[in-house]
Amino acid sequence: MKIFYEVMMKAVKTMAHQLNFRAAVMDYLLPPFLTNSIRVMYREPDVDQYRWLLLLKPFNQTVFLVYGLVAFLSGKKSEPPPFTNLQELSERLDYTIGFPVQGFFRTHFQISKRNDMRQIWKRVQEQNDPRTLSSDYDYHVSEMNKGKYAAIVATAISGPYLARDCKLTYLKERLQYDQIAFGLPTDSPLKPELERVMHLLADTGLTDKWMQEAGWLADKRRCQAEKRATKSTLVDLGGALAAVAACVGLALLTLAVECIYHLYPRVVDERLQT
Known about the structure:
The protein is of the alpha+beta class. The chain contains 11 helices and 7 strands.
């Protein structure tokens, strides 16, 4: 174990030396064209059993009120995430942990000073399944869709999967963070002009558009809109029920007043005749 640790530390020092050497001979163009993070990806629990009722929304107000009443009475609540941080994930023995990231990021987990990161790597080793170390993201996503499975992923690769399947999500914490940018030789006279072009491309949205077309940047607008619609609909259920109750109450009150209006003269006449 001591030899392994020494080898890993030597590899990290070599990488740091290479990065320092690169910084000494290269300048980077800002802004970067891609941001990558290392995060935990998993599938949200399938508890949205009344989601089909959203299909009723486009029709009419009456149907929507019925939808709101049924969903409200069902007692539907949002399911809490199965874990909220790395430590909780490492303690979930019913979850399998995938580790498709390689290189420095894998080494970082192996020798990290953070106990939760070391615990995650220990879990991966104890699983003794080489498939969990595969760099094939299709495999890891398919395992997530089957059941209790989470993976340590690079968002530059996993992002498009989240855009296609809105049930896939990340933990909030970013475990590592880096940016990717074009490089030039140090003190290149082209840098000011090329940076002006990079800022122009970023401001006009062309950089994101090209990265999406290349499959490196996920378009999350559909999933974000769907989750907002679901959330706002659930929030409005109480209001829908209140509206139904108010309408029913008003109708009953109107009916009662009308009955009194018509019956009162008749009762008075009958008593006068007697």
